[in-house]
């Protein structure tokens, strides 16, 4: 069983750490051996036995996806669905909200760019109104502004991205959940960047939907995600656009019946090998303990911010009452292509975020782009030092 204190063992479980300094876990983490092995074994069996036959033979293992996903968010397996990505899960949930013209959707300045685009699409197609709550002085959404807008407009839906893609901010999703529950407002949380680095508890968040991906801090395969749908969602019959024969049963020429569980948000045709790989990733994280992961990741991120802040001309951009494992920084003297080439030459994986990914936030911070560094628990303090040294060389 993996041990959060055995960094050498965790790195031995992660072959990629011998090749690169991987500080792009907010993009896609390096998977541990159990994930890669689960994927390879399933595909090998499918190659020999056939797709349907392997699915049937591995039925018990495939069911573990739902059990482990439920453990990850402190929910129940009937409330869990597989999805092709966090955005796929989010949009299926969004499509189930019974909007009508004039309804209000309340969100934040820091919600994920794809979510903002989806909201604007709904505004254009269905005539809803999109409102954004004000920011708190310390960064992140102002909960009092949320409350004021909820009381004034009684939105049909409140949507909050737990951790934005463009900063280390952690939004107060539990406090917002209290507001939504009190007014019986549908509430969706995008946990794409928080799943795998922070503990998630839907009983505390009080959300109706929660979406997440596997490829980021969860260390799972690409093309996989999950969706949590609350008992309220299931009881009130919310359904996505276009359920299929897996999510519903054709009961009469003019009628169908939804699946009683969250699988109404799935399609029959799914990448079953990715479900097995995702289960392995969730099991690995749960064995380590999400609270343990959170402590380690935050410690490495805090060290990164401290070191970057000491570099001449560098401004760390993260703001918020709580920060996590994503670190963003800018320097007016950095040339984007030069920085990318320099860090790649130093064998460091990272990413950059452009203004188009965070229009409101980056305009407020006065930057066109930023360096994004996202350490995980298998990274070392020495790797952070190597990043800082490379940036010093660039200066």
Description of the structure:
- With 395 residues, the chain is of the alpha/beta class.
- The chain folds into 2 domains: 7-30 and 289-393, Alpha-Beta Complex (Aspartate Aminotransferase, domain 1), CATH 3.90.1150; 35-287, Type I PLP-dependent aspartate aminotransferase-like (Major domain) (Aspartate Aminotransferase, domain 2, 3-Layer(aba) Sandwich).
- It is 43% helix and 15% strand.
- It contains 15 helices and 15 strands.
- It has a 7-stranded mixed beta sheet with strand order 2-8-7-6-5-3-4, with helices on both faces.
- Strand 9 and strand 10 form a beta hairpin.
- Helix 4 (59-73) packs across helix 11 and helix 12 (290-309) runs parallel beside helix 15.
- The model has no long low-confidence stretch (mean pLDDT 97).
| CATH superfamily heading of the largest domain | Type I PLP-dependent aspartate aminotransferase-like (Major domain)
CATH uppermost class of the largest domain: Alpha Beta
Radius of gyration: 21 Å
What percentage of residues falls in helices of 4 or more residues? 40-55%
Strand order of the largest sheet: 2-8-7-6-5-3-4
Strand residue percentage: 15-25%
Q: Quick one: how many beta strands?
A: 15
- Distance, first to last CA: 43 Å
Q: Give the count of helical stretches.
A: 15
State the CATH topology of the largest domain. Answer: Aspartate Aminotransferase, domain 2
- The CATH architecture of the largest domain is 3-Layer(aba) Sandwich
Order of helices and strands: HEHHHEHEHEHEHEHEEHEEHHEEHEEHEH
Low-confidence region ranges: none
Mean model confidence by pLDDT: 97
Domain count: the total is 2
The main pleated sheet reads as: 7 strands, mixed
The helix-and-strand class reads alpha/beta
Oligomer: single chain
Q: What gross morphology would you assign?
A: globular
């Amino acid at each position: 069983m993996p041990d959060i204190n055995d960094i050498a063992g965790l790195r031995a479980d992660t072959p990629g750490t011998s090749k690169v300094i991987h500080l792009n876990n907010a993009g896609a983490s390096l998977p541990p051996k159990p994930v890669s092995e689960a994927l390879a074994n399933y595909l090998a069996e499918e190659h020999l036995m056939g797709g349907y036959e392997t699915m049937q033979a591995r039925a018990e293992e495939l069911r573990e996806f739902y059990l482990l996903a439920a453990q990850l968010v402190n929910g129940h397996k009937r409330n869990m669905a597989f999805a092709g990505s966090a955005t796929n899960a989010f949009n299926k949930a969004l499509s189930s909200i019974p909007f009508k013209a004039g309804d209000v959707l309340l969100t934040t300045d820091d919600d994920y760019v794809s979510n903002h685009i989806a909201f604007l699409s709904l505004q254009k197609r269905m005539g809803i109104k999109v409102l954004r709550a004000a920011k708190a002085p310390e960064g992140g959404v102002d909960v009092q502004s949320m409350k004021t807008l909820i009381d004034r407009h009684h939105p049909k839906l409140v949507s909050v991205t737990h951790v934005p893609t463009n900063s280390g901010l952690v939004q107060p999703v539990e406090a917002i959940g209290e507001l939504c529950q009190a007014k019986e407002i549908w509430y969706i949380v995008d946990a794409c960047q928080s799943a795998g680095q922070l503990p998630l508890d839907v009983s505390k968040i009080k959300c109706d939907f929660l979406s997440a991906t596997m490829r980021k801090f969860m260390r799972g395969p690409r093309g996989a995600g999950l969706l949590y749908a609350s008992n309220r969602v299931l009881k009130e019959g919310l359904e996505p656009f276009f359920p299929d024969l897996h999510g519903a049963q054709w009961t009469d020429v003019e009628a169908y019946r939804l699946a009683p569980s969250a699988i109404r948000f799935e399609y029959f045709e799914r990448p079953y090998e990715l479900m097995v790989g995702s289960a392995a990733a969730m099991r690995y994280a749960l064995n380590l303990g999400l609270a343990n992961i959170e402590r380690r990741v935050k410690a490495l991120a805090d060290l990164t911010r401290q070191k970057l802040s000491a570099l001449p001309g560098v401004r760390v951009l993260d703001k918020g009452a709580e920060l996590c494992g994503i670190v963003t920084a800018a320097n007016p003297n950095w040339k984007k292509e030069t920085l990318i080439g320099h860090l790649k030459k130093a064998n460091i994986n990272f990413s950059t975020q452009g203004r188009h990914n965070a229009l409101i936030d980056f305009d407020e911070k006065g930057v066109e782009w930023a360096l994004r560094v996202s350490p995980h628990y298998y990274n070392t303090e020495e790797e952070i030092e190597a990043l800082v040294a490379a940036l010093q060389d660039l200066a």
